[in-house]
Amino acid sequence: MNHNAAIGVFDSGIGGLTVAREIARELPGETLIYLGDTARLPYGSKSAETVIKYAVRNVSFLAKSQLKAIVVACNTVSSVALPALREIVSVPVLGVIEPGARAAVAATRSGIIGVIGQPGTIRSGRYESAILQVASAARIYSRPTPLLVPLAEEGWVGTEVARLVLKEYLTPLVEKGIDTLVLGCTHYPLFKEQLNALFATEHPRDIVLVDSAVSIAVELRKLLTSQDLLADAQPPSHRFFATDSTETFARVGRNFWGEDFPQVLHVDL
Amino acid sequence: MNHNAAIGVFDSGIGGLTVAREIARELPGETLIYLGDTARLPYGSKSAETVIKYAVRNVSFLAKSQLKAIVVACNTVSSVALPALREIVSVPVLGVIEPGARAAVAATRSGIIGVIGQPGTIRSGRYESAILQVASAARIYSRPTPLLVPLAEEGWVGTEVARLVLKEYLTPLVEKGIDTLVLGCTHYPLFKEQLNALFATEHPRDIVLVDSAVSIAVELRKLLTSQDLLADAQPPSHRFFATDSTETFARVGRNFWGEDFPQVLHVDL
Question: Under an 8 A CB cutoff, do A244 and B146 touch?
């Protein structure tokens, strides 16, 4: 295995760039190849069969490059497609569910955990089973919160509309006594501040927000270290691909990646 | 041309069923073949190139059946893909833009018309040019209103959140003095009642809502009549296809179609 092989990262769109960014922070010497399947997004509202089909195509594309690991940045794909993906490549395939579940269990004191995500993620029940695997006495309340993605993409984070939507979605979970909330979608961390404000004013309770992007980056560093696969010291040369307009990807994705892209290439899958 | 050939109708998903329903009302003897490309929805946020590619695939599928006309129920496809579609089939291809534009011109008294739609539709500027073609002195104010689709699909029509979103989107158009509003997306007619209530209470002005589904059904009847292509009196046998889960299509689509489906078939495109 080549130390300087790249790390493949993919998502249905641009949200996975928050995961890629955390990996780049945690492992600054590693080269990332990122694929956003923007022509078919969102995955979160689609059936498991369709999501698996798209995920297999994405991984087949990434695997044309020399890789040492693949990170599934999308919660929906992580929920339903990991077994299928592990059948078609020999390198490790990491999903966001298990790292997020472990972080939630580490954070909770009451053992009452909330999970929000897109419909496909919640329907799969994968967060529940991953949490119960490490904390069998945990009580988990989950809810699909689909409007948060278009609200984020419309740039309405921080608005009164967003506050009302968050309140509508979260109040039932808070009333169940959760002290930890898993943000089970790459877009949701954008609402961290507004969620904290909501919990502080509406419900006087301290609720820990779990962002899987941070957890998976740490997990990936441990994996590469244990397998002696860290890149030699060198500046990385990331590559970014999108299946729809590269111009839109570069413009909207900038907010998720945190800086401008050198170049975004189009790929037809 | 066979009188009893079917009418092909397609959309990115289930919204186009509102158009199919109007056609079935206007032309109760005609057999419809409906395709919802639910595996790739939504189209409204995607680039023109990608939308054209998907639309060509959809029409190629529909054209395997014997057709006498194709109705593009999707505003985004109607905005960008009609020339490409007319190249690959010989039967008439009708889009929703021109009928909607003509209905808006017929309705307006002040000549000041508002248009709302998904980003791809508004970006194309097709409603503007279609309106100006029949009323060159019209003043048109348009706005992308992407959140209305997930709000409708989440079942939040009629809620306080929906009211705030509509107010945020529409107030600038009302302030421009529009007396007619084109609902440039198949999902938007679900908000008719709430829009009328908003205009009545917030802005004391009578604004006519234009729903293209009704206009295109009338247009299609005129076309078939003029070409002597109306079906012989017989009960129609509609067929419905979806590219993602047929179960979800049948469940959610029921509200748009107005009754249960005999059967929905899956097609992999």
Answer: no
How many domains does chain A contain in total? 2
Rounded Cα distance between B48 and B70, Å, is: 20
Residue for token pair 């600038």: B172
Q: What is the pTM of this model?
A: 0.86
Q: State residue B203's pLDDT score.
A: 60
* Type of residue at A157: V
In the three-class reduction of DSSP (H, G, I as helix; E, B as strand; rest coil), residue B33 is classed as strand
Measured between CB atoms, does A164 come within 8 Å of chain B?
yes
Most confident of A147-156, A202-211, B217-226: B217-226
Q: Which of B224, B38, B7 is nearest to A50 (CA)?
A: B38
B191/B111 same-domain check: yes
Asked if A146's CB is within 8 angstroms of B154's CB, the reply is yes
Query: CA nearest A163 in B: which residue?
Result: B161
Q: Sign of torsion, CA B104 B258 A121 B266?
A: negative
Q: The tokens of B78 are what?
A: 């109607």
User: Does residue A21 lie in a domain region?
Assistant: yes
User: Is B19 annotated in the active site?
Assistant: no
Q: Do the Cβ atoms of A211 and A183 come closer than 8 Å?
A: yes
**Rounded to 5°, angle at Cα A43 from A5 and B122:** 110
Mean pLDDT, residues B95-117 taken together: 96
- Tell me how far the alpha carbon of residue B250 is from its chain's centroid: 19
Residue B225 makes CB contacts below 8 A (sequence gap 6+) with none
CA distances, A121 to each of A36, A43, A179 (Å): 18, 10, 21
CA-based radius of gyration for chain B: 18
Alpha helices in chain B (DSSP H): 17-26, 48-62, 75-80, 82-88, 97-107, 119-124, 126-134, 148-153, 160-175, 192-202, 212-226, 246-257
Cα B88 to Cα A230, B52, B70, B92, B181, distances in angstroms? 52, 12, 12, 11, 33
Of A40, A151, A160, the CB nearest to B147: A151
Place of tokens 């390198």: A91
For residue A117, which amino acid is it?
G
> Which residues of B are less than 8 Å from A245 in CB distance?
46-47, 49-50
- For chain A, helix (H) and strand (E) counts, in that order, are 12, 10
A194/B contact by beta carbon, under 8 A: no
Q: In this structure, what CATH number is given to the domain that contains residue A109?
A: 3.40.50.1860
Residues A186 and A244 in one domain: no
Residue B195 pLDDT > 80, yes or no? yes
Region B138-153: mean pLDDT is 94
Are B82 and B177 within one domain? no
In B118-261 the beta strands, taken as DSSP E runs, fall at 139-144, 180-184, 208-211, 239-242
- CB-facing half-sphere around the CA of A45: CA atoms within 13 A: 22
> pLDDT band at residue B2, thresholds of 50, 70 and 90?
confident
CA–CA separation, A240 and B247 (whole Å):
36
Mean pLDDT of chain A, nearest integer: 93
* Interchain contact, B244 vs A146, CB within 8 Å: no
Domain limits at B174? 98-212
**Which candidate, A116, A118, A257, A140, places its Cα nearest to that of A192?**
A116
